[in-house]
Amino acid sequence: MLIYYLDHKTELKKLNMSLLFNFMELIEVLVRAPSKYKKKVENIEQIMINMHHLLNTYRPHQARQMLIALMQDQIERRQRTVDLLDSYVLCSKLTYIYIIIIIDSP
Prior knowledge:
The protein is mainly α and 106 residues long. It contains 2 helices and no strands. The chain starts with 7 loop residues before the first helix and ends with a helix.
């Protein structure tokens, strides 16, 4: 089984630099020999396809991280709600005890 680790950030930077380099070469080709531009355009298209593919492979990781963040936020909100309800219950118990004391006193 082949397992490899792909560093998306590094690969995107490499592709971006390659895209920039190929674009500069395309400009040079257009200035010197405009009829030979097709090969450079094909190279740029392939780089863009590779970048698009790399971004699409990153999306599941991004979605997983977003779900983790949303779930953590839900847990925090629910914990605050539970704490608030606990304080209401405590307040109710104290009020009940106070009422019992008032009723029992002469």
